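User: I'll paste a sequence; please echo it back and then give the predicted structure.

Assistant: Echoing your sequence first, then the prediction.
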Amino acid sequence: MKTGFSIRGLAPSSCIALLLVWSRDASAHGGDVGELWSTGAAWTSDLRVLIPLYASALLFLLGTLRLWRRAGYGRGVRRWQVACFWSGWTVLSLALLSPLHWLGERLFTAHMIEHELMMAVAAPLLVLARPWGTMLWALPVSWRVPIGGTIRHAWLSGGWRMASGPFAATLTHAVALWAWHMPGLYDLVLVNPLAHWLQHLSFLASALLFWGALLRGPARRQGYGVAFVYLFLTSLHTGLLGVLLTVSPRLWYPGQVAAAGEWGLTPLEDQQLAGLVMWVPAGLVYTIAALVLACLWIRHSGPLRARQSYATT
């Protein structure tokens, strides 16, 4: 006799109740999530993750201190930028190093939460911080000029302008997201640590490129309307992927949901909850960001039209 049920058709309150039941049942089945935080083995010790994370933190800290020592507290890099960087860095570190990553290898829902924290929370915060210039100040003076000159080199800057355009960045992020969720590649992630690392790297890099193009790059300079359009399109295709996972009657990645029973879920329920995470909470982030951009677009369009009208008279 088949146990479990389908999430399709549940009201939001029922979904919340399901999460509460899952937390209770997980403990009953031996999957006490709370105990993971006190278990050293559950924390990630992969040097491919640790070294870039701690190197970026050290560079930003040293660069901030040097800038503020020279220009004054809060100058050179603003305090809100520092807050954005450390907030984004903390979210990224918790997603990649904490027991959430360990749990994500055993529970699809946790894996999806990990991905969305990286792409929809940590990435925009890091982009708003604009940490690259601050990190450059952490390097010796003799290194800054050649590195800065290399970055400004014509062929490199031209390639970067092309890759960081709103269309290219949005397309790159979409390709990375959909490609890694194809069953063949996703199944490889489950058995190959290098593929798993590459998946996370491509998710984070493409998300940084996407948010950078919209919040700080060409789309932002072209006007809030352009950023709004591309953000809206991204919310549509990511939401579609979440919907497909939620309503699908078959398992997409049997290996990912094989241990769902240890946490009080059937494999299909685990997949459906993962789809809901991508569909609702992550979609809400994109929607809120799009609404903020829409408000800024409307707010700035009035003065712009007034200046254009004045210029023509």
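The chain has one domain: 39-141+156-306. The radius of gyration is 22 Å.
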